[in-house]
Amino acid sequence: MPELPEVETMVRGIRDVMTGRSLRELRPCPCVCRPLTLSPSFDEMARRAKGQTVTAVRRVAKRVVIDLSSRDSFVIEPRMTGLMLIADPPDREHLRLEWCMAGGRRARQTKSVWFWDRRGLGVVRLCDPDELARRLGSDALGKDALLMMESDWHEVCQRTARPIKVALLDQKLVAGIGNLYASEILHEARISPLRPASKVTREQARRLHAATQHVLLDAIEHEGSTLGDGTYRNALNQSGGYQNAHRVYDREAETCLTCERSRVARIVQAQRSTFFCRRCQR
DNA sequence: ATTAATGTTCAGAA
DNA sequence: TTTCTGAACATTAA
Fold first, then answer.
1. CA-to-C1' distance for A172 and C14, Å?
2. Residues forming CATH 3.20.190.10 domain(s) in chain A
3. Using the CB atom, is residue A272 less than 7 Å from strand B?
C-alpha cells in the first residue's frame, strides 16, 4: 500500500544505515528469481553497484531512491506490498534483495537493508533517477516551492476534466498521492471526489493545497497507515499509526466524524474505492 | 469458489 | 487528443 507517507517512512528508516557507507555486496534472497522485477539483471546490477558509496537516500513520489557515488541510483518501487527493512522481516520467504553495507567507524560491523515483498509486484532498478522523475508531475510534498503554490494546484486541476479524485491518482499531474490519501485529502478539503478537476475553484484549490500538506505531513508523523491486512510496516517491522486518524477511508456507512450527521459513502471510480461524505464535500 | 485489496503500466476502444 | 476499461503482475484473506 505504500503511498507517499509510507515511502517517506521507509526512507527515514534506512537512511542512517546506508548513507556514507559503501556497499559491500548486493545479495539475492532465495526468492529473488521469482516475480520481483529487476533492471538491469541482478548480476549486472550487483557488479555495477559493488563498492560504491551511498551518497543519499531520498524519496521521489512513491519511490525510494538510493544515490551512489558513481551517479547510478537504486530506484525501488514498493508498489502494493514492498517494504524496506533493517530488521526482522514479517517472514523469510518473501525477502527479495539484501544490501550488505560495509561498516562505518567500526569497520568489522556489517549492516544490511532488505527489500521484502509479499506479492512480488515491486520493481528495483539501477538507473539514472532523473529519467524516472521526468515522467512524474510535481511531488505532492515537493520542496520545490514554486511548483507547490496554490495557484499551481489550480493550474494542475485545469489540465483535465476527469473527476478530481481520479486526477489526484494520476502521477503525471501530482506525484505521491494514492488511493487512500486521495480520499482523506478531499474530505479535509471539503471537495467532492466527483467534481471535474477543471471545475475546482481557486478557493477549493487553496484548500486542496493546504489539505494535502496537512494530511501527508500528519501521516508521515504517524509513520503511515497500516490497514487491516497489516502488510505495511516501517523499517523496524512496526505498524504505522495513521489508520487511527482516517476520517473516511475504509469507514463506509460509519458516521462522518466532521458533520456527525451523514454517513460515509463508498463509490467506485477508475475501479478503485472512494470514500467521502456527501454532506461535507461539494 | 469468488472477490477485493494500498500501485503501475499498457493496449485498445469509445 | 482525451478518457475510460480491462488486463497484467502475484498473494492473501474474507
1. 34
2. 4-136
3. yes
A59 CA to C2 C1' distance (Å): 31
Could you please state the CATH topology (level 3) that the domain comprising A4-136 is classified under.
N-terminal domain of MutM-like DNA repair proteins (3.20.190)
Q: Is A12 a catalytic residue?
A: no
- pLDDT confidence bin for A108, thresholds 50/70/90: low
- The full length of chain A comes to 282
Q: Report the C-alpha gap between A91 and A201 in whole angstroms.
A: 48
Q: Which three three-digit cell numbers place residue A163?
A: 473527476
Give dist(CA A252, CA A239) in Å, integer: 23
- Between residue 241 and residue 260 of chain A, the positions with Cβ below 7 Å from nucleic chain B are none
Class of domain A143-277: mainly alpha
Mind listing the pLDDT tens digit for each residue in A86-101? Answer: 988 888 888 999 999 9
